[in-house]
Write a structure and sequence with these properties.
The complex is a heterodimer of chains A (319) and B (530). Chain A has 319 residues and is mainly beta. In chain A, 7% of the residues lie in helices and 42% in strands. Classes of the chains: A mainly beta (319), B mainly beta (530).
């Protein structure tokens, strides 16, 4: 009996030792970084400060270096997905770290790729997503090369303009650029076909079906106000979920009634939405858009309205 | 009370129902004048030999052999309510596979040894569990026309280190810290002299509420008449059944103390269940089973329980169940699976125009419109796959309780269907898989158990990674160490806690080198048996 107990104890001890040797700690942080406002597809998210030193004009010898960064343009929109970033790093690099300045709780890493046939430097390429939560305005994209010892070189900084989801003619990045005179903006959060409807002071209904403020009584005159899109039209999901009525200039003064119409719920039981009114305000640099009104609401499936009628009244605003 | 109502309802319909060791003890014997079929009237039943002993069958038939006999409402066997506490040791052996027999009712060490010995002697190749209760067969048969009703519920809380309050692209939840019904199973079974029928339903909330057919077995068998404890010489089963591969696949989730099968087993066999035909049986200490199945187990990603190609998978296991001494049991076997996997082709497409925002300005420009001509259908293709394995189980009865040591290894090629699904048609390279595990369980009296399992799985021995322009060998291996602690209310309920330390290469470190992902997890589970 003692022998049996002893053998059981030996087995248990052996297994326990193996257990302890394998089971200390837990590895890297979360795999996807899905809560980050700036995300890089198929890259590893690592929590912590961005590695590397401040940018240098001349690369330091023996230090891994980002030798090239290629962007198709330097403007990204809030909520834009699939932006391509690529470039090259020095041959002593093993990986590339990428982040937006002061955004999120860490940075993204990808292994350095194949050598460039011309320069022999190592190439890299990623696809990045920019969340709606990113603040509009200028920011810096940081890229750094990391060598096989884990040492990071000087980071490369590239300015990016995060353009506002509310059309502002890039005023948030270039304050001297004049924003529209006024914008009425509708946003919603589920994939349904929701329409912004505005009744102008002259009684004309502006909606995605009749997207301009043209007055039928003045057929020759082209009015400035225009709805920019019919999002999720016919339940063809485009992922935008926002519509804007924009006046760049010549906005007729008066009272505007704002409605929201649920044209098709697209199988959603409820559609929460948010209507905002922005107007131009003068600043020392020129002008900027300022939010004057914000209303929240929700439409349910029973309120689907495919008739040529106005939807639910939300607010009235006097410009 | 509810079960009693069911029993009487079914009795009125001409069916008798056994729903557990204590069920009949609460009921008076059913008089033959009620219109039910009297047991003795079914000559086939009264002469029934040992039943087929699939893993779940013996698990789910809660009434134990002799206990059923003593509890039987049959006038000959049980003139009145039975006293389950007087069940002989062999009758109390239906509890579980990996757990020692002493968890069962009315046990002492000597009794346990006898029970385990009986159980071990009757385990079939398709059911490597040593403590299955084949001796239930004659008792069930003699007890006449019962439909055995069994089942259990496993409700649990899981916590995963990699949970996030987000939804993955496509809608899958990234949060896994949750309560869930992992399994809610109901099992119906009836055994005649040469045949048996078994149906099991499964409900769970793993991916939202679902319920469906889990097992459906129709069996014919030929069993030895002299030794009612022996397994059938020959048993032909058709339907949905557990694949006879290794130790874990045929093992019932009801009896396994560890929360889930190992990663190796789950990767190669996404579910234990496939549809087909199986031949199994045993003679002396030897056991055999061979199954011909569609090769698309329940839960596989492609065509679960269907068959996209004409070839069938063959799975077999040869094993032995031995009892060298009164307190020591040694069982083992070798297994093989061969078949053909399926690489699904693609449908033909019409020509379409797409927009590629090449300058990323969000504005459609003529140069950004791309014509995509129609494409031809890409034909499907088959590929060969196989697996072989060996398993060994040792059980030692001590004063403390039964010690169980289990081990299994599997070599396979192109068989991973869940973790890193193999597709050599696409990769032009066979995926070589290898996995093993060792588990130790120590019973602490009838009411407690501690254990640990260490497992290893390599889904592709030839995996490579591309870094800095160089292709280099890479590891996709997974190690897991799982200590477990359990409390046991014999035959009725279990409360178990398991922590899984997982070491893998699913993340990358800041050098871009594959590294361990933070994905340890723990589970607290309550199981109650019907």
């Amino acid at each position: 009996m003692n022998l049996r107990l002893a053998s059981s104890a030996s087995c248990a001890t052996l297994l326990l030792t193996t257990l302890l040797s394998v089971s200390c700690g837990d590895g890297q942080v979360a795999a996807f970084g899905p809560s980050e406002a700036f995300r890089v597809r198929n890259a590893q998210f690592i929590e912590g400060d961005f590695p590397g030193t401040a940018p240098r004009k001349e690369p330091k010898k023996g230090e891994p270096t980002v030798t090239a960064l290629e962007l198709k343009n330097r403007v990204v929109y809030q909520g834009q997905g699939g932006k391509s970033l690529s470039g090259r790093v020095s041959t002593d690099s093993r990986s590339v770290g990428i982040a937006l300045e002061d955004v999120g709780s860490g940075y993204w890493v990808i292994p350095a790729g194949n050598p460039d046939p011309t320069t022999n430097e190592l190439t890299w390429s990623v696809t990045a997503d920019f969340d709606l939560r990113l603040e509009s305005g200028m920011t810096n994209l940081w890229v750094v090369a990391i060598d096989e010892d884990g040492h990071a070189g000087a980071r490369l900084e590239q300015q990016l303009c995060i353009a506002s989801r509310v059309p502002d003619n890039l005023n948030s990045c270039v304050p001297t650029q004049a924003p529209p005179q006024a914008v009425i903006s509708l946003d919603w959060s589920v994939n349904a076909d929701l329409d912004l409807q505005v009744v102008a002071p002259n009684g004309k209904i502006i909606s995605p079906k009749h997207p301009t403020t043209n007055d039928p009584d003045e057929p020759g005159k082209v009015a400035d106000g225009k709805i920019d899109r019919d999002s999720n039209a016919g339940c063809v999901i485009d992922g935008q979920r926002h519509e804007n009525l924009i006046w760049n200039a010549d906005m007729p003064r008066g009272r505007y009634k704002i409605y929201v119409n649920l044209f098709d719920s697209c199988r959603q039981s409820a559609v929460p939405f948010d209507v905002s009114v922005y107007t131009q305000k003068a600043t020392k640099d020129g002008a900027k858009l300022v939010q004057k009104l914000e209303r929240y609401g929700e439409l349910v499936e029973a309120q689907v309205n495919t008739e040529n009628e106005l939807g639910s009244f939300v607010a009235e605003y006097r410009f | 009370m509810f079960r009693r109502i069911i029993a009487f309802s079914l009795a009125a319909a001409g069916v008798q129902l056994a729903v557990g060791p204590n069920a009949w003890a609460q009921q008076p014997p059913l008089p033959s004048s009620t219109g039910t079929v009297p047991p003795a009237a079914d000559a086939e039943i009264s002469a029934a030999p040992a039943p087929p002993s699939t893993a779940e069958a013996t698990d789910a038939s809660a009434p134990t052999p002799s206990a059923t006999a003593t509890q039987s409402p049959s006038p000959a066997a049980a003139p009145g309510p039975a006293d389950t506490s007087s069940s002989p040791p062999a009758a109390s052996s239906s509890s579980n596979g990996t757990a020692p027999a002493s968890q069962t009712t009315g046990s002492k060490s000597a009794d346990l040894a006898t029970a385990a010995s009986t159980q071990a002697a009757n385990a079939s190749p398709g059911d490597p569990r040593p403590v299955a209760s084949p001796s239930a067969a004659p008792a069930v048969a003699e007890a006449a026309p019962f439909i055995d009703l069994g089942g259990y519920v496993q409700a649990e809380y899981q916590s995963h280190a990699d949970s996030e309050n987000q939804v993955r692209q496509g809608g899958a939840l990234l949060n896994q810290n949750r309560f869930l019904i992992r399994r809610a199973r109901v099992n119906l079974k009836r055994v005649w002299q040469y045949s048996s029928l078994e149906v099991e339903l499964d409900g769970n909330t793993t991916s939202g509420p679902s319920i469906g057919l889990y097992r459906a077995e129709a069996s014919l068998f030929l069993a030895p008449k002299q030794d009612k404890d022996a397994p059938p010489y020959l048993q032909l089963t058709a339907g949905m059944f557990r694949l006879p591969f290794g130790f874990e696949t045929p093992e019932s989730s009801r009896t396994r103390w560890f929360m889930e099968r190992t990663q190796t087993s789950r990767a190669l066999f996404p579910s234990e269940i496939d549809v087909g035909a199986r031949l199994s049986g045993g003679y002396s200490v030897f056991r055999y089973a061979v199954a011909l199945t569609n090769g698309e187990p329940l839960g596989s990603r492609g065509f679960p329980l269907q068959d996209p190609n004409k070839s069938k998978d063959i799975t077999w296991r040869l094993g032995a169940v031995t009892r060298p001494t009164k307190s020591l049991g040694i069982d083992g076997g070798v297994s093989l699976n061969t078949g053909k996997g399926f690489h699904r082709g693609t449908d033909a497409t019409k020509g379409i125009v797409t927009w590629s925002d090449t300058n990323e300005d969000g504005v459609v420009q003529p140069a950004e419109l791309i014509g995509n001509p129609s494409t031809a259908e890409v034909t499907s293709a088959d590929f060969k796959r196989w697996a072989m394995g060996a398993d060994l189980q040792l059980r030692l009865d001590t004063a403390l309780g039964t010690t169980t040591l289990l081990g299994e290894f599997i070599l396979a090629q192109n068989l991973d269907r869940s973790f890193f699904p193999a597709d050599p048609v696409q990769t032009q390279l066979d995926a070589r898989e290898f996995g093993w595990h060792v588990a130790l369980l120590q019973q602490i009296t009838r009411y407690g158990i501690v254990g640990a399992r260490i497992e290893f799985y390599d889904p592709n021995a030839d995996a490579t990674d591309r870094r800095a322009g160089k292709t280099m060998p890479a590891k996709n291996t997974v190690w897991a160490v799982s200590p477990m602690l359990g409390l046991n209310l014999p035959d009725r309920a279990r409360l178990a806690f398991q922590y899984d330390f997982i070491r893998d290469y699913l993340a990358r470190d800041k050098l871009g080198v594959p590294a361990d992902l933070s994905n340890n997890q723990w589970t607290l589970r309550l199981q109650v048996n019907l």
